[in-house]
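Bench notes, afternoon.
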Amino acid sequence: MDDKKRMEELVSLLNEAAEAYYAKDTEIMPNVTYDALYDELVALEEKTGIVLASSPTHKVGYEAVDFLPKQRHDSPMLSLAKTKSREELAGWLGDQEGLLSWKEDGLTVVLTYNGGELTQCVTRGNGEVGEVVTANARTFINLPLHISFKNELVIRGEAVISYKDFEKINEAIPEEGAKYKNPRNLCSGSVRQLDSAVTAQRRVQVIAFSLVSAEGMDFGNSMEKQFEFLKELGFTVVEHERVNAGNVVEAVGRFEKRIASNDIPSDGLVLAYDDLAYAASLGRTAKFPRGAIAFKWADEMAQTTLRAVEWNTSRTGLINPVAVFDTVELEGTEVSRASLHNISIIKQLKLGIGDQIKVYKANMIIPQISENLTLSDDLQIPQTCPVCGGAAKIEKDNDSEVLRCTSQDCPAKHIKAYVHFVERDAMNIEGLSEATIEKLIAAGLIHEFADVYGLKDKKEAVLQLEGFKDKAADKLIAAVEKSRNTTMARLLNAVGIPGIGLANAKLIASHFDDDADALKAAEVDELSAIEGVGSVMAEAFYGYMHDPDKLRIFDDLLHELVIEKTVKDEASQTLSGKTFVITGSLVHFENRNELKARIEELGGKVAGSVSKKTECLINNDIASTSGKNKDAKAIGIRIITEDDFIKEYLS
């Protein structure tokens, strides 16, 4: 293969990996492989003098995703040149002094303050354009929302989730397969949530690592003094140590000894010149600033034997491979499994059962295969789906080959219906996650909703699932049993009748006094006459109850459940006839659904958008320029805080 063709191949592979990592919070190749391919591309560019327009050596990150507003950065956010050589750091410093600090592993953000108030937070995005996440930033647990400095201040920081908080979040998830893989991906997804309440639950914090500008301030040409200034304002500043060429290697060693006890995820160190003018005078390359350099730790490798590859069908029909190998110890923990992601990676590694492979933990967290020493290249790709037995077909997905189940009736493709069935507003089965549902379906333990209630008689089979031991199985079965006592409204919502959510289900169930026979016999005209239901929902409800298969599913569930009758207390319906809209994060209620349930309990309604019929908009940020606030002001609807709502309507 000539150099140009190899460069095109490398650019394609690296860009695909970058898209997965930055835009989709996932990984399709080991970090070690990415670094090796990147270095190969750099060498080829230097050799040929050619740099392709889409080369990742001259691009930074990936395009921001579409579901958040975008904002162009005032100055580009570049990556750092990297080295794994401690001695190279000393040479890089020369006669200058520098600051050595952790390279935190999370999501980079730019924070802007005006008048002492946080006015904007934007993610790194592709380095040129990021995503606006200001509302979410206001939930960061250590971020000052008000500071004493009143001029414009712009800083860069790393949003992170500590190992301690990451472990707590995972501890609440009983089965291994549903646990989050690493703090970095959890943090990235948390910061970029549409609902800031979700971000708040994840205990995100931000570590400041760079002061971009502070209007009117003079820091005596010292980055260290900038850090001191930020500390005085209340920011958590990245831990750092002043170094020179004579002691930087020892300093790296001191940081290395503290990796195991460092609660903030890190994937290396950063060395920056303290002399700001000198750093600025060096300029930058197309991709890297010359005033700082990143140091990456050498990954701990272990050699082992590949024993099997498991194939798991997902709800999209993708059949995902997982490598199973002889247990090895990496970074202080035992490892015996690693995701292979797709067929392309299997072919790239030339795998075969019994091969000698090298494995490592990317960023000391994610097990990955870095190299196959045997290169048997004879692994058999399944021709049928492991769940339904339907035909499996290799397809192209972007630039990768994937294995997909072709059967439309595969139970694995109906995961979403089960996920909805167990949600809080439906059957409220805590701990029965999407990952667990996939395992139960794959093992043939559930074929329809009512089968969930037969799990207590199948404990031994549940224990055979990956990640399930006695405690986790008992906890899951207890949650299932607890959910047997429910309401008719929850059941109607759970079975997935088109257009019927919990609020409409409550209206319908209440109208028919929670009587199952009356609900099954209800005619379209009577259903349409219920205030808030309408003809479309009425026809959907009637159609469900007159579909023999759906009716059987409904009846099977009725045999498993105890339906609690709703006691109507007209005197308590103090919000009857009133419609509210809720937006923003809450303080007194766990989330919007909890407040919504309270309003409906008192006879009120909650709508998704503001209209002339809205009683008021509940928003703790009255001064917000959100769309709902603008709509409310435009048509004269009151905007009140959560405290005001409680005083006026709940006291």
